[in-house]
Amino acid sequence: MKARFLPEHFRFCPTCAAEAIIRFQDNGVRCEVCDFTLFFNPTSSAAAFIFDQDDKLLVVERAREPAKGKFGIPGGFVDFNEAAETALVREVREETNLVLDKFEFYGSFPNQYPYKNVIYPVLDLYFLGFVSDFSNLSLEESEISGHQFVDIRKVPLSQWAFEPLRTAVAKLTKERFGS
Ligand SMILES: [Zn+2]
What CATH topology corresponds to 43-177? Predict the structure, then answer.
């Protein structure tokens, strides 16, 4: 089955089971029989750009689809009832065993994340993360197959895992290195 945007997977009403689901606006579905209504909004993710003392960026190589083998930055999805800042610190810790000394918000970038047959709308929240001690760096191998510290000016844009990451890296490269 071809991957489709999340609301397009609904055909039967989850409440009354009628085959009467219609799409409305961009992000809603409604049952024409019982008026069950459901809106879909972006999932949030939080991730960190972490540079070392030589201005090299810590990148992780994705061990799984989507974008297996491509470069990502440490981060992940925000849980229910969790602040983005908490998710950021937690995910960086889980994926790399690094502790962020501090961080600041960089920007938000809309993403579409395909998983199995469903394309999820995601709002990627990117932060600049600061780490003074990299000696604890160790990777969560189920998610990540390797890591590198890279000069972001030398990485082809196509090597980055997702479109919003390419956009953010291009912006960051210009701001940081003026090229
Ligand atoms: Zn219904």
Answer: Nucleoside Triphosphate Pyrophosphohydrolase (3.90.79)
